[in-house]
Automatic annotation (TrEMBL):
Protein name in the entry: Glutamate receptor
Topology within the bilayer: Multi-pass membrane protein
Entry-linked SMART domains: PBPe
Location in or out of the cell: Membrane
InterPro entries named among the record's database cross-references: ANF_lig-bd_rcpt, GABAb_receptor_plant_PBP1, Ionotropic_Glu_rcpt, Iontro_rcpt_C, Iontropic_Glu_rcpt_pln, Peripla_BP_I
Species assigned in the record: Cajanus cajan
Function recorded in the entry: Glutamate-gated receptor that probably acts as non-selective cation channel.
Family: Belongs to the glutamate-gated ion channel (TC 1.A.10.1) family.
Record key words, sorted: Disulfide bond, Glycoprotein, Ion channel, Ion transport, Ligand-gated ion channel, Membrane, Receptor, Signal, Transmembrane, Transmembrane helix, Transport
Length: 851
């Protein structure tokens, strides 16, 4: 079978060789070049006419005779290889131009490499090929830069879903996809879909297009061969995919041949935008090429609708002129010498600047933008790399980064109406509340809450208009998120936590709440056993210091007074009890008239002053503790929950169950779900659960409403946070994120949250950190030094009599004693609130006045 196919191909090629040889051979030829084209295609037809014209013009100008041998490969790589071998072995060509596809070029390059025959390819050629075959040159400028132009056009419809349709097996596809993706990223856009179309006619084009029908507003970038593109638009028209809401953009592979289409074919592609290589208006420099091409093309291809030359004709003309000019300068020498001369070419041809760099002509940086409309197309402007869009390329041209500079090319607006899923099972209705309305015998829904208000404020900040409808969803949040992935909803608005497992299917906006999960537990009294509450106003150290200073002051008074009062003498036990009595009795009464020594009176006065201050502060602190209840958490750590094997609660339909089990290590049997705020509070009060785990936004609402009985305990676990849900790669996501940031910075987000919490706010909430602590000696150190110092001074004076004092010290002491004596006679004016209690003491009241 293979032998039969090969013989058939060889026979066809042999017949073509005989025909072309008879037409082109010349005995006085100065050089021979070969060409391999596909005469069945419009590109091949333009190539053949342009090459012959180039040879005629060159021979006429230089009075030389060069021969051109053209072979028709019919687009078959095998026939192209056979043609190349015939041109080299039989026709003795010194260089070959063509073919126009990479599949053909790769086989021909292998044959030319063995014979060192330069091959000027008219197809897009990968970099590695020119390194492998040094005789291979890409003589047509690379069109890869057009992807930047396309990306700038797509930027105009950034809300649309962008899809790429390319030809499977095309050598340029990988580079094209990479460059397009990179260019779209630079304009904050992404490819949503990529579809490869096989170059065979046996497949169903409609099946391929069906994959791209979903969504409302779509941009299709088409990078296919000319025949496949025609079939694509014919199928799209039949499937009603060419109307409003669909933008079609074609690359130069197709657009550069739009001029060849008839009105019937163009009717299938109304509204498409095309990018094609720009051909400078240089026809007049080459012997009126335009008119000569039309005349020759019409005579050879009378069945064609249009006889206009395109970029492919210009490129073939330039490649032919380049080769014969190099052959003339090298005296028709072939091989490596001719290749080097071609590489040194530097002239301006029909298609632009001809200069090779690394075996390739510099890529095109200026493209023409067309719009197919009516029975033909119109040229609406240009795009130049680094400059942007303009309506002309003259010296006075103005450039703009937006395609709007070129006017309204197609209907730029698409009625983008979003379907928004809203959870109806939210536990905390303050965030999202779905209310059923059964009025007028029709069930409808009303959507309220913080998340709804925030989304609507965000939409107002967008630079474009969005229309949307809310839809209630009554199931788990995980399933709701998957509805976006399944394209039932365009996005989700509600109290949806941002967690990694959901990122597998969708994308989230930035969090609009504080991220984190906290533990809520009941509170218990901090004061513990109230029977000992009277000791709480002072610390233990304070109580000890008070006792020490009391005993010390009593000892000083007893020591000074015992020589004047016999009842203070006697057995040790009697003296000790009497001393303690004097010490504590002085807390309630001065009894200066009962004391015989001015020294003891001074010590007692100072101590009574200090004791009065201490007792007043004690009374105030104790009153505060008795009237204000202090609380602390019943549970303060996860470990305590585990040790107690306690039950905990979480929000129904939440991701928290997985987190409690897998991360915090709580037994699954001890985890219980709840579906309302009230059920949480009741379960905590009834000790059905020991703790509830809530997202921070939920915890704020719960504690605002249940402020007295519950408190946050333990650390904050940094997960979650609420966000809006979008499909992966959604063009809306970037704009919504920016709008969220804007309303956060101007305070709108904070105001919405404050308004939400205001109705639940509890004014008398007691923060766990607020506490009236027991007082320590630090607060009374000056008072203790004063009384202790006074008593010590009196003791020292008693031990060391007045005779040991210097005159100055005696005068000071005498003055102090005079003041005390004066005060003694005014004792009736001194407050006796506590003194009257001591008057009943028989031991003290009967003591004689020895002063």
């Amino acid at each position: 079978m293979y032998k039969f196919v090969f013989l058939l191909c060889f026979f066809n090629m042999h017949m073509l060789i005989l025909v072309n040889t008879a037409a082109n051979e010349s005995s006085d030829a100065k050089g021979i070049i070969g060409a391999i084209i596909d005469s069945s295609s419009r590109i091949g037809q333009e190539h053949a006419v342009a090459m012959n014209l180039a040879l005629e013009d060159f021979n006429h100008k230089n009075n030389l005779t060069f021969d051109l041998h053209i072979r028709n490969s019919q687009g078959d790589p095998l026939l192209a290889a056979i043609a190349a071998r015939d041109l080299i072995d039989n026709q003795k060509v010194q260089a070959i131009i063509g073919p126009q596809t990479w599949q053909e070029t790769s086989l021909v390059a292998e044959i030319c490499s063995k014979k060192s025959i330069p091959l000027l390819s008219l197809a897009d050629t990968p970099e590695w090929a020119m390194k492998k075959w040094r005789i291979l040159l890409q003589s047509s400028p690379s069109q890869i830069m057009q992807m930047k132009a396309i990306a700038e056009i797509v930027k105009y419809w950034k809300l649309y879903n962008v899809s790429m349709i390319y030809e499977d097996g095309d050598s340029s596809s990988t580079e094209v996809l990479s460059k397009l993706s990179e260019a779209l990223t630079e304009v904050d856009t992404k490819l949503n879909n990529v579809v490869a179309i096989p170059p065979l006619v046996s497949f169903s084009m409609s099946q391929q297009l069906e994959k791209l029908r979903e969504g409302q507003c779509r941009v299709f970038i088409v990078h296919l061969s000319f025949p496949l593109t025609l079939k694509l638009f014919e199928t799209a028209k039949r499937m009603n995919m060419m109307g409003e809401g669909n933008v079609w953009i074609t690359t130069s592979t197709f657009t550069s041949l739009v001029h060849s289409l008839n009105a019937s074919t163009i009717s299938n592609m109304q509204g498409i935008i095309g990018v094609k290589s720009y051909i400078p208006n240089l026809w007049h420099q080459y012997g009126n090429f335009y008119h000569k091409f039309r005349k020759k093309f019409s005579s050879e291809n009378f069945e064609e609708f249009s006889y206009e030359p395109g970029i492919f004709a210009a490129q073939a003309y330039d490649a032919t002129w380049n080769v014969v000019d190099a052959m003339r300068e090298t005296n028709q020498k072939g091989g490596q010498f001719l290749l080097d001369k071609i590489l040194l070419s530097n002239f301006t041809g029909l298609s632009g600047k001809i200069q090779f760099t690394e075996h390739k002509i510099a890529p095109t940086h200026t493209f023409q933008i067309i719009n197919v409309i009516g029975r033909s197309y119109r040229e609406i402007g240009f795009w130049s790399d680094g400059l942007g869009f303009s309506k002309s390329l003259d010296q006075n041209a103005s450039y703009s980064p937006s395609v709007e500079e070129l006017g309204k090319v197609v209907n730029p607006t698409c009625s983008l109406r979003l379907r928004i899923g809203v959870p109806s099972t939210s536990t905390f209705k303050q965030y999202v509340d779905v209310i059923q309305d059964h009025s007028e015998n029709v069930t409808s829904f009303k959507f309220k809450g913080f998340s709804i208000d925030l989304f609507e404020e965000t939409v107002k900040k967008l630079p474009y208009h969005l229309e949307y409808d809310y839809f209630s969803y009554n199931d788990t949040y995980d399933k709701l998120v998957k509805q976006v992935y399944l394209k039932k909803y365009d996005l989700v608005v509600g109290d949806v936590a941002i967690v990694s497992t959901r990122y597998e299917y969708v994308s989230f906006t930035q969090s609009y709440t504080d991220p984190g999960v906290v533990m809520i537990v009941p509170v218990k009294s901090k004061t513990g056993n109230r029977a000992w509450l009277f000791l709480k106003p002072f610390t233990k150290v304070m109580w000890i210091l008070i006792l020490v200073i009391i005993v010390y002051n009593g000892f000083v008074v007893w020591l000074i007074e015992r020589n004047h009062r016999p009842e203070l003498k006697g057995p040790i036990l009697h003296q000790t009890t009497t001393m303690l009595w004097l010490a504590f009795y002085s807390l309630f009464s001065l009894n200066g008239d009962k004391l015989h020594s001015n020294l003891s009176r001074v010590a007692t006065v100072v101590w009574l002053f200090v004791a009065l201050i201490i007792t007043q502060i004690y009374t105030a602190n104790l009153a505060s503790m008795l009237t204000v209840e202090r609380f602390e958490p019943t549970i303060d750590s996860i470990q305590q929950l585990k040790n107690n094997n306690a039950m905990v609660g979480y929000d129904r339909g939440s991701y928290l169950k997985r987190y409690l089990q897998d991360v915090l290590g709580i037994n699954a049997e001890n985890i219980k779900q709840f579906d309302s705020q009230e059920s949480y509070a009741d379960a905590l009060r009834n000790k059905e659960i020991a703790a509830a785990f809530l997202d921070i936004p939920e915890a704020k609402i719960f504690l605002a409403k249940n402020c007295k009985g519950f408190v946050q305990a333990g650390p904050t676990y940094k997960i979650g946070g609420y966000g809006f849900v979008f499909p992966k790669g959604s063009p809306l996501l970037h704009g919504v994120n920016q709008a969220l940031l804007d309303i956060s910075e101007i305070g709108t987000l904070r105001n919405l949250e404050n308004n939400m919490l205001a109705s639940e706010e509890c004014k008398d909430i007691i923060e766990p950190g607020e506490d009236t602590t027991s007082l320590s000696p630090t607060s009374f150190m000056v008072l203790f030094i004063l009384t202790g110092g006074t008593s010590t001074t009196a003791l020292l004076i008693y031990i060391f009599p007045m005779n040991y004092l210097c005159p100055g010290q005696r005068a000071t002491w005498s003055l102090m004693m005079a003041v005390i004596k004066s005060w003694r006679f005014q004792k009736a004016l001194f407050p006796r609130r506590v003194h009257n209690v001591a008057e009943s003491s028989s031991n003290i009241s009967n003591l004689p006045d020895l002063a």
